[in-house]
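Checklist before submission:
- one chain only
- standard amino acids only
- sequence pasted in full

Submission:
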Amino acid sequence: MTASSQTLRARLAEERVLLAPGVYDAFSALLAEQAGFEALYLSGASIAYTRLGRPDVGLVTASEVESTISLVAERVALPLIVDADTGFGNAVNTQRTVRAFERAGAAMIQLEDQAFPKRCGHLAGKSLVPVQEMCGKLRAALDARRFGSTLVLARTDAVAVEGLDAAFERAEAYLACGVDALFIEALRSPAEMDAACARFAHRVPLLANMVEGGATPVESAAQLGERGFRIAIFPGGAARALAHALQQYYRQLKTDGSTRAMKDGMFDFQQINALIGTPELLKEAAAYE
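Returned file contents:
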C-alpha cells in the first residue's frame, strides 16, 4: 500500500468535504501544498492547456500524464487524484494505464465513459461508450491495481448526452462494479446536484466538479459538502488564473520593455528561490562534497 492512497482513503471516510485544487505540474503542486490543501487533482485539461497549449479534446497521451504524475509525486507528499480520461484505450489499455499511474504515484485514478477522442466534460458534442464496455474497463482497472488502497473513481458524462436519469443508471452500474467513488459530470442545476446526492451520497463518495463558466453552478466547498458531496475539485482554475496573469505580464512587458512596473505583483529572484527551497537543496548538496 502507498502512504498517499492510504491517507486519501482514510480522509474520504470522514464526513467533511475534501477540497482538492487542480494542478498541472510540480510547481503548481508545490504552491498548492504550501497553501495547506490535503489532496491535489491532476487535471488532464490543465495538462493540455499548459503543456501542449491546446484544448482538452483527447490530445494528451498516457505517457505525458504519467511523467507529470512522477514529477508531482517526487516534489510533494499530498495524495494525488489523477484524471486518466478514458483509460487511453480499451480494457487492456486501461489496465496498463492504471498500473503506470499507480506506479508513478497516483492515489486515486479517474476513468470516464466517453468514446475516444474524448473532450472536456463541459464542451458540447460528447459521445459515450456502451455501459457494458465501460463496466469492463472499470473491472479491468480494479483488477490491475497493485495496491488495494489505490482508489478508482468512475465518471459518467451521460447527463449532457443521454439525460439525468440515464446518467444515474450508468452511475449505478459503475458502482456495482466496485468502484471507490463516483463523478457525475456537468450537473446543470442545484436541483440536479441535490438529486445526485440524494441517490448516491449515502453509499459512496461523490465528486463535484467546479468549472468557472461551465455547466454546473459554482459553489464553495462548504456548500457542496452541505449538499452531500465528499470531494470538491476546481480542476482548471489554476491554469485559468495563470493565463490571466501571464497575459497581463506579457502585455506590460511588451509595452514597457521592462518589468519594473510589475515588481510588486511578482516574486524577485531571492523570493522565488526561497519558495522552491533552493537554500535547503544547496545545503543538502554541500553535505556530500
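Reviewer check: The radius of gyration is 20 Å.
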